[in-house]
């Protein structure tokens, strides 16, 4: 289906054409008409499926066709996201798709000075893209009001729950008028996500473009069994032997991300690390160098990599498997985006056998195991306990002030109505 068949305005069609897009993805085909109707939406979509345009385009059109309240410019749409990187990415999409419309937008997140954000808000904005913690900072300072919000988007809601933002989200939503449109997007549909939908959404439509907790079909998945102390050696070997020019590598901890990037540099591979302890300027610089090809290997923790938008990324490597099986889906979703092929490789030692089993149980499939000659695992090595490095299901101050998620969702306002369509 073409964008021109979805009922979008001439200004938005001109913007999509400027971006080089004509054919809508499945999530866009399903979400855009429902959002244009003003329906609340619970949408399940993998990363790389075009979901950002799926809510940005109809959101802009609804602002375009509705009358703003009062004469002073105020916040009419709020997009909440879990991390700085995703906030920056969504803000760029809002600017690109809204380039021919008279709306002002701004992005607010932690890790940078709050004063320029305050200045922008005082000048008046229509659309705010924010992480929950920094948004609450503005609310407490009185530099933003949300009582005029017409549309609320919770993007990557599953990650926001994992990071402990549920109480922040509740506090934010209490300041809004109840008569608004709510859109919830999530890569996975866990029981907690369904509870969140029941609590915040009003008679929502439900759409999914893939089965629950599945990975994109374009991604080939492979496990290389290897001893823990030979992982770095094998990683360097694979990058060199395969002449990989761009590879995103995941670790569980910030410390290992730093150490691994330094070791890869000593192996002659240009590498950089991004994680929550890095300044926003350092993270932005590392990502820019990676996209340009100046950095060959980007080593990241789960939270820092959330929202990374890297076109045509061919390789993702799990140097360590995540403690939470759902994070595997988010990780490898960085490749195989927008219909392109991708490869996801996991280096798995004896310590991680249970983590691998959890992932395969979630995916409802076995991942192919291939032993690389010369890197056969030593069967005499005993498993060591996996320690949580603080990067899974923990609050991260890079995106704001996450708080505990150990709260039960309150009563809902309407059960979801499911739309079953082929992806």
Poorly predicted spans: 390-423
Proportion of residues in helical segments: 25-40%
Q: Compute the separation of the termini in Å.
A: 13 Å
> What is the makeup of the main sheet?
8 strands, parallel
CATH topology of the largest domain: Rossmann fold
What name goes with the CATH superfamily of the largest domain? P-loop containing nucleotide triphosphate hydrolases
Number of domains: 2
Task: Look at the helices and sheets and give the structural class.
Answer: alpha/beta
The DSSP helix count reads 15
Percent of residues in β-strands:
5-15%
Task: Please tell me the overall pLDDT.
Answer: 85
Radius of gyration: 21 Å
Strand order of the largest sheet: 3-4-2-5-6-1-7-14
What does the overall shape look like? elongated
Q: Helix and strand succession? A: HHEHEHEHEHEHHEHEEHEHEHEHEHEHE
CATH classification, class level of the largest domain:
Alpha Beta
CATH A-level architecture of the largest domain: 3-Layer(aba) Sandwich
Annotation, overall tally of beta strands: 14
């Amino acid at each position: 289906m073409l964008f021109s068949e979805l009922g979008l305005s001439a200004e938005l069609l001109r913007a999509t054409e400027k971006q080089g897009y004509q054919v809508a993805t499945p999530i866009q085909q399903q979400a855009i008409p429902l959002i244009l109707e003003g329906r609340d939406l619970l949408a399940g979509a993998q990363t790389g499926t075009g979901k950002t345009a799926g809510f940005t385009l109809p959101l802009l059109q609804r602002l375009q066709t509705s009358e703003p309240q009062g004469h002073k410019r105020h916040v009419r749409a709020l997009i909440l996201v879990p991390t700085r990187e995703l906030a920056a990415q969504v803000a760029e999409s809002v600017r690109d798709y809204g380039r021919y419309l008279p709306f002002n937008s701004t992005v607010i997140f932690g890790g940078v000075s709050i004063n320029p954000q305050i200045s922008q808000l005082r000048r008046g904005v229509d659309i705010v893209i924010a992480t929950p913690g920094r948004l609450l900072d503005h609310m407490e300072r009185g530099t933003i009001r949300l009582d005029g919000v017409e549309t609320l988007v919770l993007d990557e809601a599953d990650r926001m729950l994992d990071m402990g933002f549920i109480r922040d989200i509740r506090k934010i939503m209490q300041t809004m008028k109840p008569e608004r449109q709510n859109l919830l997007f999530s890569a996975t549909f866990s029981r907690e996500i369904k509870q969140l939908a029941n609590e915040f959404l009003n008679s929502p439509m439900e759409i999914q473009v893939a089965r629950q907790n599945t990975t994109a079909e374009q991604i080939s998945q492979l496990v290389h069994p290897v001893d823990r102390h030979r992982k770095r050696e094998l990683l360097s070997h694979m990058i060199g032997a395969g002449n990989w020019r761009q590879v995103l590598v995941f670790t569980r901890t910030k410390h290992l991300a730093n150490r691994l990037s330094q070791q890869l540099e000593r192996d002659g591979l240009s590498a950089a690390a991004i994680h929550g302890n890095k300044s926003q300027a350092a993270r932005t610089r590392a990502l820019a160098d990676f996209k340009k090809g100046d950095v060959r290997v980007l080593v990241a923790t789960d939270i820092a990599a959330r929202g990374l938008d890297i076109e045509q990324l061919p390789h993702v490597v799990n140097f360590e498997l995540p403690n939470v099986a759902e994070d595997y889906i988010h990780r490898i979703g960085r490749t195989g985006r927008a219909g392109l092929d991708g490869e996801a490789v996991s280096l798995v030692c004896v310590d991680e056998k249970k983590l691998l089993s959890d992932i395969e149980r979630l995916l409802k499939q076995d991942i192919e195991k291939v032993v690389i000659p010369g890197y056969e695992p030593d069967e005499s090595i005993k498993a060591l306990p996996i320690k949580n490095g603080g990067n899974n299901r923990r609050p991260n101050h890079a995106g704001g002030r996450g708080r505990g998620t150990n709260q039960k969702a309150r009563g809902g306002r309407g059960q979801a109505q499911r739309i079953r369509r082929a992806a």
